[in-house]
Amino acid sequence: MFFNIDGDDGHAIRGWIVLDNPAAEPSLIAVVPGRGEVLIRADIQRVDVRDLGIHTTGKVGFHVDDTAVPGLASLEDLSLLEAESRLLIFRRSTPLHLKKKVYFFDAGILPQNPISQALEQNFTMSYFGSEKHSLETMLVLINNHAVNSILLQGRSNFNRYSSFLNNADFMRIALLREPFEELAERILYLKILGRMRATSPLAPDLAHLGPLIDFAIDVPVDDAKGMLGAFRRLAPELRDRLANPMTRLFGCNIDEQPQRRHVSVALENLASMDVVGTKEGFDLFRDLVAGHLGRNVMVDVAPHRIELAETLGKVLGEIGLVADLLAYDLDLYQFAGEAIVSAFEAGTGLVTRHTEMSTERF
After folding, report:
1. Nearest of 329, 282, 285 to residue 183 by alpha carbon
2. Which of 338, 170, 346 is nearest to 356 (CA)?
């Protein structure tokens, strides 16, 4: 998807939008709290968009004024969403919103909803699950010149987007997860998807996860020997898909399979970020983020805790096959944790020096 906001002068909001399927007719939904949603067609001729080759006809422009949204000039809270995907493309800013751009690399399969909700209220535009968006959509979000207050959160590949985030002046933060516990959450999440698979309207979207879901269903979480058997039966291609997700996220290119050298790459990439923390050291992570943003944006929140995942993670940690599956992630997590502690004790706020020392072991 491509879109652009030309401007909002209070009385009108102008821009254009091109869908992933350029033959489809784009529409917007105007959302005002306490009111019903308003559908707005984006069918104004935009010769400039056509001439740029972004759309064949250029009938993708929109002009939102008082006719479509009564009282537009007086509305402080107004959002425009793409009608089909409901992707946020515009929201009016308020003085309470931080004038900051942040990408939050959340390395877990399950989103940290309490943290996300606390962060969201501090930014004009917020997007979660960034890995679900296409490359084109992500680049539009990152390079959106019409907004200076934006939060992106998810598991998008670091190497793919790092230079774009740097060029757009994004602050980059990362929260790392203990690998055995994260795998436990992944298995439990896949089990839930398995129960949904037959009846959920999302069933077609789950088709590519079918083999992984079948594996997760086969894992008896209350039987250590049964779990060992399930991992022994794990097909090589599924093993590759489950192995070392954190190293894959921070150290690999988009089509690469994690190798030992990628641990060093991941450590160097983490060292380039503004703030890196762990779930176990969340208080320090929260304070460092607050220092960079000039506001404590995560007051009275903490990462979610799933007792079953914590228990299952400890059992998985006793299985050698699982340790082999996560070998690079375990090294990465250990070295990153040591670097964070070392930097904190030194009062530098950086992880670069300790990380460079750690990578000498590879």
Report:
1. 329
2. 338
pTM > 0.85: yes or no: yes
Please answer whether residues 60 and 46 qualify as being in contact, where contact means their C-beta atoms are separated by less than 8 angstroms: yes
Return the H-helix or E-strand segment holding 7.
strand 2-8
pLDDT tens-digit map of 174-213: 999 999 999 999 999 999 888 876 666 555 556 677 889 9
Which tokens go with 91?
A: 């929201």
Place of tokens 């990408």: 103
Domains delineated in the chain: 1-92 (2.60.40), 179-273+302-361 (no CATH)
DSSP 137: H
Distance of CA 69 to the CA centre of its chain: 32
* Torsions phi, psi for 45 (to 5 deg): -65, 125
Tokens of residue 122, six digits: 């501090």
29-70 pLDDT tens trace: 999 999 989 999 999 999 999 998 889 899 999 999 999 999
Nearest to 293 by CA among 302, 285, 301: 285
- For 267, phi then psi, to 5°, come to -65, -40
149, 90 contact by CB (below 8 A): no
One-letter amino acid for residue 202 of the chain: L
